[in-house]
Amino acid sequence: MPASKAKQADTAQRRTEMLRMKLSGKSVEQIAEHFGMSRSTASKDISRIIKKARDLEIQEAELYREVQRGRLETLLLGVWPDAITGEPKASEAARKLISDLSDLLGVKVPVRTEISGPDGGDIPFSSGELSELQALIAISDQPGAIVPVFEDVDDEDDELEDVDEDGDDDSDD
Question: Looking at residue 134, what is its pLDDT?
Answer without folding.
Answer: 79
